[in-house]
Amino acid sequence: MPEQSISTGAGVFDAIVAGPPEGRPVLLLHGFPQRGLAWQRQITELAEQGYQVVAPDQRGYSPGARPQRPEDYRMSLLVDDVVAITEKLGWATFDLVGHDWGGAVAWWTADAHPSRIRTLTVVSTPHPGALATALRTDEDQRNRSHYMIDWRETPATEERMLAHDAQLLRALYAGKIPQASAEAYVRHLSQPGALTAALNWYRAGRPDGKIGTIGVPTLYVWSTNDSAFGPAAAQETERWVNGPYRFETLEGVSHWVPEEAPEPLSRLLLEHLRAHG
Description:
With 277 residues, the protein is of the alpha/beta class. Helix content is 43%, strand content 20%. It is globular.
């Protein structure tokens, strides 16, 4: 897929680009431990439908935007990256899509910059307020989220994940994504400093402020076999959106929705974009 370097004040972001330059702009944000490549099926589908699509490797995943300190991965800075990238692209408004950590960034961006966001689509990740509620009230969600505490260890987590030819890192993908993509992620995150940068998203601490309800048209896609996010937080998310809202559940699909269930996700995404054209 064609790639482009996007220079901002925070560094240079590598990105996959596709579709006509005059097309309606869509930004796709990946999660841990992946890259913009995670969206390859959606990128192809959107580009064929005339959308201008950009899927950057986010902060820490792009070698040219890889600060070393955990505090350099605070949520406010991740949101700033979205703003900087889209301003560099000349996008006054755009459709925003995120999965996993990219979904969290998407929620916070829609809260901080609603006038820039035409539509919001979040895959897997519940609204941060809904997740906070579930962590307080739902034992199942607390158990699901315990890995986040474990991964804050430094450098033990990196050593464990990369030991024995990255056996634990490979296991995270659970055989649910294409083997070629998994190998590409492992190669990339095995580079010096790359996995530490990716884990710094977990080590940066709590967000700087509080997030409110989302007013932009929102599609939230959750899957029943997601190991990280349970039904309590998924169902609670509706309370945190006061704009047009659509909640879709994919039965029997794991956390890796964009790659495990590309066709239904692309269909839902295109329906959402067309409904709010």
